[in-house]
Task: structure prediction
Amino acid sequence: MRDVITVAHLTLVEARRRRIVLAGAVCALAFLLVFSVAVVLAYREMAADKSVSFVERQGTLTAIKLVGFMAANFLSVIFAILLPVDTLSGEIDSGVVQTLASKPIDRAQIVLGKWAGHLLLALAYVLVLSTGILVVIGVVGGLPPTGVTHALPLLMLEVTLSLTIAMAGGARFSTVTNAITAVGFYGIAFIGGFVEQIGGFAGITSMRTIGILVSLVSPADAMWRLAAHYMEPEIARSTGMLAFGASVPSPLMVWWAVGFTMLVLLYAIRAFRRRAL
Amino acid sequence: MIETHGLRKLFGPTVAVSDLSLQVGEGEIFGFLGPNGAGKTTAIKMLLALIEPTSGTGRVLNAPLGDRASRARIGFLPEHFRFHETLTAIELLRFHGRLYGLRGAPLEARIPRLLSRVDLLEAADRPLRGYSKGMLQRVGLAQALLNDPRLVFLDEPTSGLDPLGRLLVRSIIDELRADGVTVFLNSHLLGEVEATCDRVVFVKRGRIAGERRLSAPAELVDLELHTGPVGAAILEGLSRFGTNIRQPRPGVIELRIDSEATVPAIVSWLVQQAVPIHAVQPRHQSLEEVFLDVMGDDEGPG
Result:
């Protein structure tokens, strides 16, 4: 465990020195700034318009919040994929990892240390964006943080899964191949989610089934859709008038995503252990 | 200290190491020589468990290849040492020291001592990205010695070093020898190897092609005889004393003998044959000549 912490610490130091943390923070702040301006302007316009009722205004603000979360979720997933994309493959190519792996540590500790260090950063990114959205929408629109205790862990799980896939790819492929594979893997989940949603809206069972099958292969986007479902107002959930939930993933999908993440992590360890360095 | 039997490594259809069987004794300064692509680095990586052998067995520090506990007593300087360039030399050594299980005061005391030994104390707080290639090799050497190793693998340690840097590496190897540390040295610089190693083996196409003990007097001697005119019968008669007999020009005979002890017998025989002898010049083979002999004409530059 001590070696995992040592490697994780190096990963964090490296991320800070390479200005990855700074770049992430600047992008997060820029996103929140744009989001804040949009929310303030939308709220002012709605408040000035006497024909917009309180319920309509809250409904619109909820939709803006969910769109904000959707964008934040997308950014977080991309951040989580790009962050570790070269951490193994790059260090294998440059030979840096030879000095590490020849030390009296298990290669699994190198993978776990790097995974933990990057995961801390990725989760912090999700947390900052999510908190920012909730604060803006709460302060400006007075909207309560509905379902956040359920939604935030799901968003974190999605990010964890995406990051783990990028780690595993790095143990097996070159950096560019890994990036293409990891983004493609998320893209499959994304399109599968759309297919499932459209199937849900249109009542086409086969489309829903395809979407669910795709989610089983790549469960990342299902976590977002479940999180969005939890963040919808109670009244929308009870009446089925959902903005992001025409087809809500089963809670069992969460367990599958957890198991999937663990399997991918185990694969990353196995692949790195077998890799010629 | 190191013992391998038939180590073999294939990368797809390519044979990197075909059959490596060697033994390295405790405290020995061992040279591992061969042209580019001979499989030297792959062999070192197998011994360090960075690469899994396709077949064959080996033991390092009396433990099977890859044993974690034994790696705590091994130091390794890879060819072209590189590490995270945002770290300073002190941070790099602290990090590697922790991976060796070192902590606190013993580690903190050892870091400046090592940096001073590799002449990097003044640059200790600078990020590695500002280091020259030679400085990187030297900080890499310091990390290889962090754990007071019993066995050190040095893969081209003088690569990128200027003459002063090479001298420094040589003096460190001498210190390791004095401390009884075994050094496994992979180098292209035959002069360096000749000056530091007790024994060398020559690797050709992934297998041991020859061996030479440098700490003992050289075995093969090239003999040049300046004589009066000789016929074919004399040249043929000399074949009982040595090999590679030739007459590059009239009055000069060259041959290779096993030992200088053979010289009086040759001279005596020539006198008996009434051949006038003007000069006898024995010349020991340099490591480079041995290397070229072992590699043969079929081996081109790598």
Observations:
- Chain B touches chain A at residues 11, 45, 48-52, 68-69, 71-72, 74, 76, 78-84, 86-87, 91, 95-96, 98-101, 127, 140, 143 (CB under 8 Å).
